[in-house]
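In response to the reviewer comment on reproducibility (Comment 2.3), we provide here a single inverse folding case reported in full, input and output, so that an independent group could reproduce the run without further information from us. The structure tokens appear first.
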């Protein structure tokens, strides 16, 4: 009976389910109908046929990766701003590029970021995007997200602080949002772009770049509308110190006093929570995105990941935007999440490849409050999965493949990516966009964005090499 056939059947050398008992079927299968996983089990129980059959005797099927933090539009800003302090980055590099964001530039940036994320096995991504001064810039990101077929939570990041006493967190006048326009824009974007895969949500960027009134208003909007909410919190020791000076408490204690914490909220970074604040995050079921590579690049510290996990905090992993990472490689993030703690605690026995892969799948789904839908391969969940080809010099021999996947950190081993039952990467290639077109567009847009933002001198002065074209690395873009 053809109507009983699965739409998709993946048979492979191993299926890592990440189910309650953490079963691994070796060899195993996953079958899919109408975007939903219908069965998972040992190869001996596999259906014999399907409309589409992906067979990989040396492949490993994993739940699709969940990237809990990035800024998709920043894809084409990669490499603009290396070796800057966080404060200089924000004032001299970030604000000029935010000020010149347009729908077309953000579309190109998002296409590049999404291509890399999908190609590496990410099936769900979170992204924070500016909607000011050009309100339509974020529409470019959402158009790319919709075209890509990825599952996504995209926040509209609002900022409105005019407190000049904290220069690093002062927001220039033209980038400031009004509370009414911020909430209205979230409504506009949700009615235009929300779908079964995409959710637009509010974000108050941080407790210092937003007034308390903005934070509370966006939280109220999220609660009333049953939306998720995002924030950047305790990203640096300086941010926490400024918060203590201004409000007398740490960032997370402040949010607790405001009544903003809860399972609807996902906070990015959380590098400097105090021990009582870790307890508060666990008690309120607030999600955390741990972004170790981004934190390293700005030397902002190493988050207390083991302490948060021990306390029961819902932690996922994030790459952060290409302007502060610079790759969109969640495998590298998994590896760093483990290795950094071994060093920080002087404890080489801490962590494991299994823990890293769990955080990048089920952990991220829990942090987002989406673990009823995604994060593991179980009947009834949405069909988000990736097939990693272990027949690869970076991953062989097969018996150590889980360790190799995480500690070799090679996204290029991902051959197939499925979101909601739809194949978005096939044989290592994107099915939705022409690869050469995405790359060509990224070069054109990067070059004209540097000009528009007036950051050419900042970019060009970084090289100490003698370039015969007289332009330097910027010339490579043209
Ligand atoms: Zn961020």
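Designed residues, in position order:
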């Amino acid at each position: 009976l053809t109507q009983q056939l699965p739409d998709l059947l993946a048979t492979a050398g191993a299926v890592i389910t990440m189910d309650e008992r953490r079963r691994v079927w070796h060899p195993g299968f996953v079958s899919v109908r109408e975007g939903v996983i219908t069965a998972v089990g040992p190869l001996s129980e596999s259906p014999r046929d399907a409309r589409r059959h992906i067979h990989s005797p040396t492949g490993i099927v994993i739940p699709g990766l969940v990237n809990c933090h990035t800024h998709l539009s920043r894809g084409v800003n990669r490499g603009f701003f290396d070796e800057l302090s966080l404060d200089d980055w924000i004032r001299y590099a970030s604000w000029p590029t935010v000020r010149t964001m347009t729908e077309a530039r953000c579309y190109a940036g998002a296409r590049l970021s999404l291509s890399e994320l999908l190609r590496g096995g990410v099936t769900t991504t979170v992204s924070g995007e500016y909607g000011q001064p050009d309100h339509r810039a974020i529409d470019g990101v959402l158009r790319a997200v919709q075209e890509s077929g990825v599952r996504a939570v995209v926040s509209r990041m609002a900022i409105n602080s005019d407190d000049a006493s904290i220069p690093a967190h002062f927001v220039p006048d033209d980038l400031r949002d009004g509370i009414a326009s911020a909430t209205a824009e979230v409504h506009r974007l949700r009615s235009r772009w929300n779908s079964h895969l995409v959710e637009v949500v509010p974000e108050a960027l941080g407790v210092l770049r937003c007034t308390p009134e903005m934070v509370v208003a966006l939280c109220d909007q999220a609660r009333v509308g049953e939306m998720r909410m995002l924030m950047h919190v305790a990203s640096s020791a300086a941010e926490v110190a400024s918060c203590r000076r201004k409000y007398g408490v740490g960032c997370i204690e402040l949010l607790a006093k405001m009544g903003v914490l809860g399972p609807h909220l996902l906070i990015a970074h959380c590098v400097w929570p105090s021990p009582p604040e870790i307890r508060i995050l666990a008690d309120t079921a607030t999600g955390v995105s741990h972004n170790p590579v981004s934190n390293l690049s700005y030397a902002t510290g190493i988050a207390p990941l083991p302490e948060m996990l021990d306390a029961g905090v819902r932690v996922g992993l994030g790459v952060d935007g290409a302007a502060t990472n610079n790759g969109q490689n969640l495998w590298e993030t998994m590896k760093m999440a483990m290795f950094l703690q071994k060093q920080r605690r002087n404890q080489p026995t801490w962590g494991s490849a299994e823990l890293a892969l769990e955080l990048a799948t089920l952990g991220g789904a829990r942090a987002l409050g989406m673990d009823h839908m995604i994060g593991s391969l179980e009947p009834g969940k949405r069909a988000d999965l990736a097939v990693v080809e272990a027949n690869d010099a970076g991953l062989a021999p097969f018996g150590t493949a889980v360790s190799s996947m995480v500690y070799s950190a090679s996204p290029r081993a991902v051959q197939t990516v499925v979101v909601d039952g739809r194949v978005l990467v096939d044989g290592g290639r994107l099915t939705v966009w022409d690869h050469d077109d995405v790359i060509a567009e990224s070069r054109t847009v990067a070059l004209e964005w540097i000009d528009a933002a007036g950051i050419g001198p900042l970019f060009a002065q970084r090289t100490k090499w003698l370039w015969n074209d007289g332009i330097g690395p910027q010339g490579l873009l043209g």
